[in-house]
Amino acid sequence: MPNIKSAEKRVKVIETKTAQNKAIKSRISTFIKKFKTAVANKEVENAEKMYVEVVSLMDKAAVDNVIHKNSANRKKAHFTKMLDDLKKESK
Fold first, then answer.
1. Which of 16, 20, 39, 65 is deepest in the core (most CB within 10 A)?
2. What is the pLDDT along the chain (91 residues), one digit of tens a residue?
3. What's the confidence (pLDDT) of residue 91?
4. Residue 19 and residue 66: Cα distance in Å, rounded?
5. Torsions phi, psi of 18, nearest 5?
6. Quick check: 56 and 8 in contact, CB under 8 A?
7. Superfamily of domain 5-90
8. Domain segments of the chain as ranges
């Protein structure tokens, strides 16, 4: 337990930010699962909608330092390739 008032405040702030970051990461994970499910079921339109949402969430999280920008870019590239391959298959 912290003895100094500023340290007590930091503990509260850290707990709040941790909860916010966890919620953001959870939302990203949910949309990633939906995107991968749409790709697996070969639903091109649904996958495109989920892709846009996933990329948007990842960009926002990277800007807020919830996830590292390189990690976000790597995952976006992976999802872009998945979507492109799905589009090529469906033609």
1. 39
2. 889 999 999 999 999 999 999 999 999 999 999 999 999 999 999 999 999 999 999 999 999 999 999 999 999 999 999 999 999 998 7
3. 76
4. 11
5. -60, -45
6. no
7. Ribosomal protein S20 (1.20.58.110)
8. 5-90
Distance from C-alpha of 90 to C-alpha of 42, rounded to nearest angstrom: 8
Q: Which pLDDT does position 15 carry in this prediction?
A: 97
Q: Which residue has the tokens 């939906």?
A: 34
Q: Quick one: three-class SS letters along the chain? A: CCCCHHHHHHHHHHHHHHHHHHHHHHHHHHHHHHHHHHHHCCCHHHHHHHHHHHHHHHHHHHHCCCCCHHHHHHHHHHHHHHHHHHHHHHC
What sign results for the dihedral spanned by CA atoms 74, 78, 84, 87? negative
- Residues 6+ positions from 73 with CB-CB distance below 8 Å: 62
Q: Hey, what are 2's tokens?
A: 């912290």
pTM of the model: 0.88
